[in-house]
Amino acid sequence: MPTMKAVVKIKPEPGGAELQDVDVPTIGADEVLLRVQATSICGTDVHIYEWNPWADRRIGAGRLPQTLGHEVAGEVVEIGSYVKNIKKGDYISSETHIFNPGDLQSLLGQRHIGKNMEILGVDRDGVFAEYVMLPERVCWINDRCIPPEFASVQEPLGNGVYAVLGEDADVAGKSMVIVGDGPTALFATGVARATGVAKIIVVGFSDFNLDIARRMGADHILDIKETSLDERHQFVLEQTGGYGVDISLEMVGGEVPIKEAFTHLRKGGRLTAFGVASEAQVPIDYNDGIVFKGAQVYGINGRKVFDTWYRMRGMLAGKRLDISPVVTHVMELEDYEKGFEMLTAEPRQAAKIVLFPDHSELKAARERMDEKRDMPAAD
Ligand code: ZN
Predict the structure, then answer these.
(1) Is-cis flag, bond preceding 14, omega within 30?
(2) One of 44, 195, 240, 263 is an active-site residue; which one?
């Protein structure tokens, strides 16, 4: 049995994971074997790595050992006998919500929130490895002009695309507040810019990340270290003719940011709820915040399969969206511990970190990043 390197969560306790030699997975008839070219670290991986209460509840000790990771780009090296549309050599990424085609939601075009879906790296072995097996139905063919370090982060970028566009993609010429400065909020800022949002206001606290938000196209940055909610609301009103924003994205989770996202929203506007609150019960002003406001409140989980992927590929391949400011670091897969340390350090010093199992692929990614840095900034 051939073996491969994989980053495996071993014990249901804090203290990380181990780089191990494990068997290369054997694929089923409707699956493909992917050679991982790039994989990126997500907040979810940090929760599992640290084994917080969510990981203990959601995954449970019984499923360990399990390979970490879900964000991926790579090359198909083997296909099962029933695989029809994916070929050996295809360059793909994976939708991480592995939907059950028979779910009511799947039948109605809501596959991303199917009742019986599995999540890669959460409910089954993930992608922090040299190889991973994937069902054909979640494979998405990338445009080859999108480098692996960008193709890998399309999973959280897709969250940003869906959060910005919502259900109707009616955003051009409108105003938007993005509450939060984590990687998905930074991606959302770039998507908002690329899709014609006319005024983008980002609310956050990390100097490192807010600088990235500026480079991703935010028109205004509101630092919560320096301003009160009331001051920020006054600013939003001044910027929107006294009405509040058309669209408000909540991308933190938590009582204060949720309140903030509702506060800045104008009557008749749309609020996208993406951040996951550590306390699920959060008081909101139901009457004035939703009912009398005529607010449309949308929960966003995942990406629209495959509408989001299609638009995202178009924006990246068509060079309408540059996500390079958010992809701050690339490193070897075996340096994952350093990656996790950087992502949990305060103050923040990294946004998205991409890992490469293969040294030559990492070298090529470094060269692309250096080249980009040396280029004069376009105006
Ligand atoms: Zn992710």
Answers:
(1) no
(2) 44
